[in-house]
Amino acid sequence: MNSPKKGGDIEYNLNLQFEESIFGVEKNILVTKSEKCEVCGGIGKIIFEQCKSCHGSGKQKRNRKIKINVPGGVDTGNVLSLIGQGEQGENGGPSGDLYINISVAPHKTYKRDGIDIYIECHISFGYASNGMDIQYQR
User: Which of 38, 82, 114, 126 could form a disulfide linkage to 98, CB 3.0–4.6 angstroms apart?
Assistant: First the structure.
């Protein structure tokens, strides 16, 4: 008898705008993954004949829309893990995981360095020496 085997992991590359990475965002992504064949129930056969829908594999590739919540503060290189959202397992094994690789587009005005956000702005010596507050218009 075959023992249960965990399904494969899937990687997905997600591009975010600067503001989305700072404040967080809810995204719908489309992922193609193997799932149990709906015709044969994952067995690969219908009675004694090979299932024509999955060609005997018991699995079919399907596009699935998955809603993800990207937390505020993510940056390029961060990875979000969605446990159990990967490929279907075999022989009753658990599904694999889905890993979301984050990439953030640069902003034309703001610069980011870790958790700090900077803006370059020319000010007079008087403002700089007196520690004045400056209002910045987007």
Answer: 82
